[in-house]
Each structure stands twice: as structure tokens, then as C-alpha cells.
Design goal:
single chain; 144 residues; alpha+beta; six-stranded antiparallel β-sheet; 2 helices; globular
């Protein structure tokens, strides 16, 4: 799901598959638990991901980890893909050069829910306001 309003973009994804940086180039089952998905993201630091500003919180009473990331190399599919047959370069998601991403991994029913907002760092120098809005929006979510 993608939400776009006044230059802000937020995406939500329950990954069907992931393309692991440094992997075989074939789709893999995504990490099945919240904790394993957060560990999977941290491991991407060995493959051009730069993570910072990590913190834990809750969203609708569910454990959530927030991280800010960027990269100097495209990481297509590293967050995941919405379907198993998705094209990693067109239909999947991951860190991209010239963007900072504020990422939330939520311990949701059915597996980790990944949400993020990207900011084009060639256009915006101070990402803090965008990331604060994203975190505020997350606090309005409820799970049924």
C-alpha cells in the first residue's frame, strides 16, 4: 500500500519475497518474525546499507523498530516484494542512492509489516520534519 499527499510518500509492505543483498539473485522467503526481519536489515550494512538512528517503540501496542538508512548502491528488493513473481528492479523495494529512508518494522499479525518514507536528499537537506511526520502517522495506526 502506498500513501502520497503533498510531497510525502509512505509505503507499507508485507513482503512475499526478498532479494537478499549478497545473495544468489533469486527471491527468498522473507524473515518470518519481527526480530528476524530487523536482524536481516542490520545485516545489510555489510552490503552498502548505512543504518543509523535506531530506536524501539510500539505501534498500536505492537513492538516496532525504527531505523534511518541510505546507500550508495541500489538495493532493489532488499525490503521485499509484494508478490513472489515481482520484478526486483520494477516492483520491489529497497534502499536507493540519493535517498534517506525512515523505516519501521512492526510486529504485525501474520509477520513483520515494513513501512517507510523516502526523502530525496538531493532536494531536501533536513529530513527531520518528514521523519517526525512519519513517526507521528505510525502512532495513528490500529490493528484489528
Amino acid at each position: 500500500m502506498t500513501w502520497v499527499k503533498a510531497g510525502n510518500k509512505v509505503r507499507f509492505l508485507l513482503p512475499a519475497v526478498v532479494y537478499r543483498p549478497g545473495g544468489s539473485g533469486s527471491p527468498e522467503e522473507p524473515p518470518a518474525t519481527y526480530q528476524s526481519y530487523v536482524a536481516y536489515l542490520r545485516e545489510q550494512a555489510g552490503y552498502h546499507a548505512n543504518w543509523r538512528d535506531e530506536k524501539t517503540t510500539t505501534v498500536s501496542g505492537r513492538a516496532t523498530t525504527l531505523l534511518t538508512g541510505n546507500t550508495n548502491e541500489p538495493m532493489d528488493g532488499s525490503f521485499g516484494c509484494p508478490t513472489a513473481k515481482a520484478d526486483p528492479g520494477k516492483d520491489c523495494f529497497g534502499l536507493q542512492p540519493d535517498y534517506d529512508f525512515r523505516v519501521a518494522v512492526i510486529d504485525a499479525p501474520g509477520g513483520p509489516l515494513v513501512a517507510w518514507t523516502p526523502v530525496d536528499t538531493t532536494q531536501v537537506v533536513n529530513t527531520s520534519p518528514v521523519f517526525r511526520r512519519f513517526e507521528g502517522m505510525l502512532q495513528t495506526l490500529t490493528f484489528r
